[in-house]
Design brief:
The strands form 2 sheets. Strands 1, 2, 3, 4, 5, 6, 9 and 10 form an 8-stranded parallel sheet that branches. A two-stranded antiparallel ribbon has the order 7-8. Helices cover about 40% and strands about 20% of the residues. Helix 2 links the parallel strand 2 and strand 3. It is of the alpha/beta class.
């Protein structure tokens, strides 16, 4: 993979969620995805991931020169971090700080480091619209390391809060999720929310990267200006889908490279 961050027009990072197995429960193919992506959002143990799984994911990312991100979430193993939760702001900040520190510690033990933070699931979506939860996320990143970029939905509450706090914000788009006309994601559970067809995902990824737009669920064109593109590790056929997306981007002349 790339040896370091690259910026400029026509450059897109490809990220995926890794380290989400737990004990005997196996989810995704981390080794295969590490051969495709340029950034790995590694679970921190609150929505998925046990210490051994996390350590193996970090070691694999270091070996493949893939950037490591702390994928922080609500404390929700049973719901895979996808259930909305009302957590007091100070408690949420402390829990996120705990996760960032744990992931960074394991990454450093393997010769790498956490180089960005990305909220997961319900926290990602809640912080996109809830100023209090957004502030809690920003407070955690600021307390740990103000140099860590925050990977999130462009135009969201947490993006605005992070920018106001002086943090670096990296705009993220999704190859395997449907969009609404306002630029937010169609909630999981609704028909068509998750896109598992590799060809369709690849076409959408190319459109986002080259035209900075994507078709919303209602057929409207939505402006999507991003630096990183996500493929979820638990989407059916995630490895095939990720490969199709990367190959399509490269055919379109897009340089696939990490942002951190």
């Amino acid at each position: 993979m790339s040896s370091g961050p690259t910026t400029g027009p026509g450059v897109i990072d490809l990220n995926a969620d890794l380290g989400e197995s737990f004990g005997a429960w196996q989810l995704g193919d981390d080794d295969a995805l590490l051969g495709v992506v340029t950034s790995a959002n590694i679970a921190c143990g609150f929505h998925a991931g046990d210490p051994l799984t996390i350590r193996r994911a970090c070691a694999g990312a270091v070996a493949r020169r893939v950037s490591i991100g702390a994928q922080v979430s609500y404390r929700d193993l049973a719901g895979f971090g996808r259930r909305n939760m009302d957590v007091p702001a100070d408690e949420l900040t402390a829990e996120l700080l705990y996760q960032i520190a744990a992931l960074d510690g394991i990454a450093r033990a393997e010769g790498g480091r956490a180089s960005y933070v990305k909220p997961h699931g319900a926290l990602y979506n809640r912080a996109a619209r809830d100023p209090e939860q957004a502030a809690a996320v920003v407070a955690a990143v600021s307390a740990y390391d103000r140099a860590l970029p925050l990977l999130t939905l462009p135009g969201s509450e947490v993006a605005r809060a992070a920018a106001a706090a002086g943090l670096s914000v990296v705009a993220e788009g999704f190859a395997d999720r449907a969009y609404r006309a306002d630029g937010t994601l169609v909630p999981r559970g609704q028909p068509g929310a998750v896109i598992s067809d590799p060809a369709r995902a690849a076409d959408r990824a190319t459109a986002i990267a080259t035209s900075h737009a994507v078709k919303a669920a209602d057929g409207q064109d939505v402006k999507v200006s991003i630096r990183s593109l996500c493929v979820h590790g638990d989407t059916p056929g995630a490895v095939t889908l990720a490969r199709a997306v990367r190959e399509a981007l490269e055919r379109a002349g897009v340089l696939v490279a990490p942002f951190a």
